[in-house]
Amino acid sequence: MKRIAFVTTCKNRTQHLRLTLPQNLSDNSSYSNAVFVVLDYSSPDDLLPYLFKNHQSDIESGRLVVYSFLDPAPGPFRMAHAKNLAARCGILEGAEILVTLDADNYTCADFASFVNNQFNEPGIFLCPDFPLIHSLPHGPTRPDRGYAGRLAIRTQDFIKAGGYDEIYHQWGSEDMDMIFRLQRMGYQMGHIPNSFLKTIPHPAAIRFAEY
């Protein structure tokens, strides 16, 4: 079993994490070498009280690790910066493979085992199959918006790529930039099946509130 860290940044999204985190922990309980890393990105809501009240046993077991970034000059959420911090926290937890997981994302059952099995060969990374998803009609076979940030990558490859480019402060572009850079570096793209890309639907007013 490879050491897999699911890394999540959270700023004012505890409403989503309340739903996804317990389910994700349960859905990957059979994979003993996974750790869920939550980065409190100066979240102004009740993120920390919620985690310490409801997930104390997960924290004590080491299954869940909580870090906090206290912004010295609080301002808008900076997506690429937050993701890089969360990835570094995952690396501190010994991750061989990093999986980015937004607060509104469900992994679905046994995703950690799927990721582990996909990384038997060097030089690959995993992301959604964007052309396939965009070709599907809106409905039960097409993932809801919010899946695009899912990325599974070896820690050493994330470091070689330099992480996310922090020129991208807002949502969306940092993911595509990372994928294109990895391909230019010669890494092979693998795809995460749509069955693992379940999200919590929510309006743009929530999605972009912290920017």
- What structural class do the secondary elements suggest? alpha/beta
Summarize the biggest pleated sheet.
Answer: 7 strands, mixed
Report the uncertain regions: none
> Taking Cα atoms only, what radius of gyration do you get, to the nearest Å?
16 Å
Shape: globular
SS element count, helices: 9
Terminal-residue CA separation: 38 Å
Quick structural overview:
This protein has 211 residues and is α/β, with parallel strands linked by helices. It has helices at residues 14-27, 47-54, 56-61, 79-92, 111-118, 130-135, 155-161, 173-184, 204-207, and strands at 4-10, 34-41, 64-69, 97-100, 124-128, 151-154, 188-192.
Key descriptive features of the protein:
single chain, alpha/beta, 211 residues
Would you write up a description of this structure?
By secondary structure, the chain is an alpha/beta fold. 37% of the residues lie in helices and 18% in strands. The protein is built from nine helices and seven strands; from the N terminus they run E-H-E-H-H-E-H-E-H-E-H-E-H-H-E-H. The chain has helices at residues 14-27, 47-54, 56-61, 79-92, 111-118, 130-135, 155-161, 173-184, 204-207, and strands spanning 4-10, 34-41, 64-69, 97-100, 124-128, 151-154, 188-192.
